[in-house]
């Protein structure tokens, strides 16, 4: 048994299955992660270039119990030491969410402990709290993942107001689609980032939607199409595009990446101005991107903003960020056992409890 576990019987078990990662973690009241196990399904979805919902939920069914067992084993704790069970119930793929929720409900019922409903998006931002080791709210929050590109005004860890989101593709989705266009593979983010290292970010002037408009919305679909045309030619055009050599792929990747980063940083700056907040939290898979992290750091220094970006290993989906469950537990925001999932984005107030 680990030291911390022997000191505390009050441990949180967090479960995450909203998309294509099956994950569980054990977290103590200081938000220390005693264990965090992630079983990724990337290999199952790779050949489709994106997540196939039916395949995802079937894989969750097979993996959820072994993942929970393994996280308890790694933490050196037994189920009897678990004082509450937190589970991501929104947003995400309906079948995937249901698998995690069913496991969590069963455990909460059998152990007779509280059930806590986690908003996956709020949890992505709460990942910043874990590294900081202290309260990081209120703040503006930027969540950039495979499914979402959202800006929030976060009054507290459990009280979010959506300021703006994407009107079409999410930032991570654009990375994934562009990687497919360039023949790089899936998931696209890390592969684009790698290819872009040898490229010129100014080689192709891709569009930056809404960048100079006074609205907190994103659009990445036009950018994706622009990359497609630059790579494979514009329909109806006589001129052929330059040959898709490794050099050209690197230039396209770098030019695309910098266009996305320009927009994300520009809109985040607008949100900071609009809200007057002096603190910024950034989470979600795309926040693992080194160019985005660097540019956000520059902006924060320039604007004298306190910046917290989730640790790289906590950017992509994981259950450790379900440490957010402690905020619900401490506030007594328990959920009933007939709790259901909410697959879509909660547009107005994204409360971290239901
Ligand atoms: O947060 P996440 O694991 O899942 C969702 O909640 O959607 O985010 C996954 C997304 C994928 O689209 C992936 O391509 C992107 O995050 N991603 C990145 C990087 N690492 C992962 N995008 C850009 N640069 C990266 N280094
Ligand atoms: Zn996510």
In short:
Helices cover 41% and strands 19% of the residues. The protein is of the alpha/beta class. The protein folds into 2 domains: 5-128 and 317-351, ATPase, nucleotide binding domain (Nucleotidyltransferase, domain 5, 2-Layer Sandwich), CATH 3.30.420; 135-314, Nucleotidyltransferase, domain 5.
Oligomer category: single chain
Q: Which small compounds were modeled alongside the protein?
A: 5'-O-[(R)-(carboxyoxy)(hydroxy)phosphoryl]adenosine, zinc ion
The parts where pLDDT drops under 50 for at least 5 residues are 1-8, 348-354
**pLDDT averaged over residues:** 93
Domain count, please report it. 2
User: Element order, helices and strands?
Assistant: HEEEHHEHEHEEEHHHHEHEHE
- What CATH architecture of the largest domain would you give? 2-Layer Sandwich
| Strands side by side in the biggest sheet | 10-9-6-7-8-11
Helix content: 40-55%
Strand content: 15-25%
Give Rg in angstroms: 21 Å
The first-level CATH class name of the largest domain: Alpha Beta
What structural class do the secondary elements suggest? alpha/beta
Give an overview of the whole structure.
- Helix 7 crosses helix 9 and helix 9 packs parallel to helix 10.
- The chain has 354 residues and is α/β, with parallel strands linked by helices.
- It is 41% helix and 19% strand.
- Strands 10-9-6-7-8-11 form a 6-stranded mixed sheet, sandwiched between helices.
- The structure holds 5'-O-[(R)-(carboxyoxy)(hydroxy)phosphoryl]adenosine (KG4) and zinc ion.
- 5'-O-[(R)-(carboxyoxy)(hydroxy)phosphoryl]adenosine (KG4) binds next to helix 6 and helix 7.
